[in-house]
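Technical appendix A lists one of the benchmark inputs used to test multi-chain prediction within the project. The record comprises two sequence entries:
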Amino acid sequence: MSILDDASAARRVRDPLDRMLQYLERHWRVYALIAPAIFFILAVVAYPIFETLRLSLYAAPRNSTVEVYVGLQNFRDIFADPFFYQLLWQTARWVVLAVVMKTVLGMLIAVHLNHDITGRKFFRTAFLIPWGIPYAISAVIFRWIEQPQYGYLNAILLKAGLIDQQIGILGDPSIAWLGAVVADIWIGTPFMAIIFLAGLQSIPQELYEAAAVDGAYRWQQFRYVTLPQMKSVILIATLLSTIWTFVGFDVIWTMTRGGPLDSTSTLVIWIYKTGFENGNLGLAAAFSAIGFVILLLFAVLYLKIYTRGDGESL
Amino acid sequence: MSVATGAADRMRTQVRVYAVLIALLGVMMFPFYTMISTTLKPDATIFQSPAELLPTSPSVSSYLDVWAQTEVITWVANSFIISVSTVVLTLLLAIPAAYACARNDFIGKRTFLLSVLVVQMFAPVVLIVGLFDVMVTLGLMDSYLAVIIPSAAFTLPFNIWMLYGYFKTIPVELEESARIDGASQLMVLRKIVIPLAMPGMVASVTYTFLYSWNRLLFVLTFLTSAGKYNIPRGIFSMVGVLSIDWRMMLTVAVIGVLPLLILFAFLEEYIVAGMTSGAVKE
């Protein structure tokens, strides 16, 4: 062993690149196993994200291969257009109403499913169905229900004497979004119900017994036992539901394509319309970039909640 | 909440619970009722204004006409092709990755798993413009792959997490003893790991299958020839600007939902396990 050898050995240990190679040599099998998944996600998700962000700086008509660099012009156009703020408002009211209704209805279903009753499995399966069928199908069913002349809704309202002539909900710019959001609520409620039910089942029964001994009424039990115990489940479920509602495309596109007079358009509907109906991919990419920023905020929040306190559970 | 003190109390609770559940179920099932009852009406009575809420003379003529008047067979077949291919591709990518994470500690594991989780949140629709560019560049437009590849990418995160969770619960000793008996790594995976992780596998497969069966966006954007439409795209193509053949469209809808109902009836528990895995931690 010469001094020279010792020195080079020490250098090797210190050299981070070398250490990395040594590590890889020992663990290459593990990395080989996850490499296909990583490569796939990079190619199919990360690269298109990059591509979208790049396109947002270009004028890129859909039907030609010519792309002209325009800097931030697309964004300037967006922020200068009063309709953009209208669009944000429409998106916000859509998401808020849908998520609130999904949460309330989901909780109502979950609380009542959380009883020892016969046929519970049947109920749980039946409540699940709207969540699991094609969105486009749900959309056309609701379009049919709300159809002005032949739809069931108008027939019922007429019979009940609530209206004296048929109304065209989806054709009226002031209420069309309500007609569409109903379908979205119908589809999204089962998820909340199932998640809440799982959460309810993990609450220790003793807590309720103690509350009952203290003479708490059913509502008080819900308020002071159920809700606090369910806090993190409710938080994660509403956050996920918010994200999915925000990016919901199929339902609105099938029901109204964002109309009438763009009154049912949300940000993602507008991305699609701008890119694929009006053929302006650059501008659509700029709208997408704004969507990314909003999603990123949600994603950070989700990770924060998900990894809270227990980084070791991974 | 079974804190009822007496039998009478318990009875009252039961009645109340059933009443609420049945009322809620009635509301939830009403859209299905309108769909199915419409398809059972003879052509003439559908367009009666206001609608008759009960079909007075039910007939199955819609179901006889739908085969001749629409491409429903092709759409169902395409839905199967797309969904099954997506399931296979996703599993091929997810099983090795999930297994590697469950069995080893390595630098970057936490980052990998968490980034995968974030991917799940990046909904396809916000990167559809970039994806469109990629598909055009790769010459994949109007090929099934243009739908299968992104569907697999967006179901991959769920699959990796689901399988990772199940693989972790399988004792290493079981695998080691098989290895001592001379089984190859692949055989261990096939004969021990995958069978033991079956509930997770079923949940993953069901989720992926439903995802690609139900989604419209990729097919709408990347497939242009009508012969390649799946069920949602087929339904969408029937939504005319001026007129809609409601009777045929809703009949196709019933046919598109039927396979899923069978799936639900048999696999409900796995679906629920899958749904709750992301939100309710053990």
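Chain A touches chain B through 112 residues (CB under 8 Å). Residues 3-55 of chain A form one domain. Comparable benchmark entries are summarised in Table A2.
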